[in-house]
Each structure stands twice: as structure tokens, then as C-alpha cells.
Amino acid sequence: MVRTSYKCRQLSAKILQALVLVSDNNYYRIVELLKECLGDSMKHEEVSEQYFEILGELLAKDKIDEIVRKNQENEDLYISILSGLFEQVTLKCIALGYVQKKKERLGIDGLYVDMNQGKGLGEIIDIASNMIQVDFIKKEFKSGTYTYATIKSLLSIRKLFLLKNKTLINCENKINKMFKEINSDSDEEKHNFILACIRLTEECDKQEVAFLYEHIKNIIDPVKHIPNYQLNLIKNPNHEIYLRGRMSKNPYSLKDLGASMRDVLDKI
Length: 268
Known about the structure:
- This protein is mainly alpha-helical.
């Protein structure tokens, strides 16, 4: 990638934005070109602000919906872009892992936090999370195709504890949201999720394996939520010596008193 001035990059961005407005064919050509430049942009993320800005605009939910309403034949283009984004997430997490190992070797001298660390990662995760809001992309995303990549990305970001800044924390939160979406509905999604978790345990450390098995357990044996019943307590006048005052807050919720009659007695 050739380094250019900020003003030159701004001008190029405005030209591309103008060309997109001319025709849908221009839109597709420019999206294809941006897709091919994704790897280079991640390598030089410090000078790729305009690139990510345009890519985000062209792959926003409303823009994709508008284009696909006119022509559904190019849906595969967006699926391939989403795959490319997740591939770059994986590669960037690996690169940041090497940075963290270098910090570990430096000891106390490596404890400083680089506030710009992970900027490009944040950009592509933002774009991916916005794309997933489009109905046909969400359907593909939850079909099992991206289950492995999503879980792997979350585990990789969770391990970057020495590099954590606001950007990487936001990245983890957004990947975690995707992580919850891929096993939230149908039995097929849960089946794909469990298979991906088991596959990943072969390349994970003990903490990551425990994290994955905990989520598998929650799917197989979910926590049962106790309904919040309302109890209407009536005090016998003969018990006034034991139970002082008036029970003016009837009915009492089970959440306030406890789950069993023993809890109710203890509360009284």
C-alpha cells in the first residue's frame, strides 16, 4: 500500500462516495475493490480511517437493504465480505497475541496501555455487527457457518488482558453479543454451537475449555427460573406476642421473602 497524505485520502474518499451515487453498478464495483483491499488496510490501519469509513457506509444495514431490494442476485457478495471480515478478525487477534507476548517478556516495562491498539479490529467488528442486522445475512450467520469463527474470536480477544483499552473492551462486548446470538433460538443453532465448542477444546487452554464447557452445560441443562409468586400472609391475633406490627405490605413477593417456607419463617 502506497502511503499518501491525509488530504489526498480525504479527496479520494469523496470521489468514491460520489461515484457510488451514480449507479448501482458503481456501488458493486467499489465494494468489490474495497473487499480486495481489506487485508492491506488492516496492515496499515493507522492510515486507513477513510477506507473503513467508506466501507462502513456501503455495508450499513439500510444501504444493503436498499440495494438488495433492487437485485437479490448479489447476496453472495455480502456473505463473502462477512467471511473476509471474520478472517481479518482472526488474523488481527493472532497479531495482537504476539504483541502481548512481547509485553509479557518486558515485565513491568510492558504494562503501559496503547490507546490506539486494536483500532482496525474495532472498525471491522463494527462493520460485521452492522451487517448481521440484515435479515438474509443474519440467517446465514446463525446457520452454523460462522459459529466456529465467532467463538474463536471471542476466546482470542478475552486473552488480550495486557492490551485492554476502550477499543478492545468494545470489541469484546460486540463479539460477545454475536456469541450469544449464535445459540439463542433453534435446536439446530444450539447443536452447531456445541459441535463448534467441542472442536475448539482441542486447541484451547484450561481456562478456555472451562469457559466453553460452562456454556455447553447451560444449553444442555439450562438454569430454571423460579416464578415470582405473590404470598398473602395473614397473622393470627393470638400470635401478636410473637409477631409484632401489622402486615401492611400484602401481598409479599417471593423474591423478597425467599424460595421456601423456611425462608419465609426466617424473614418473619
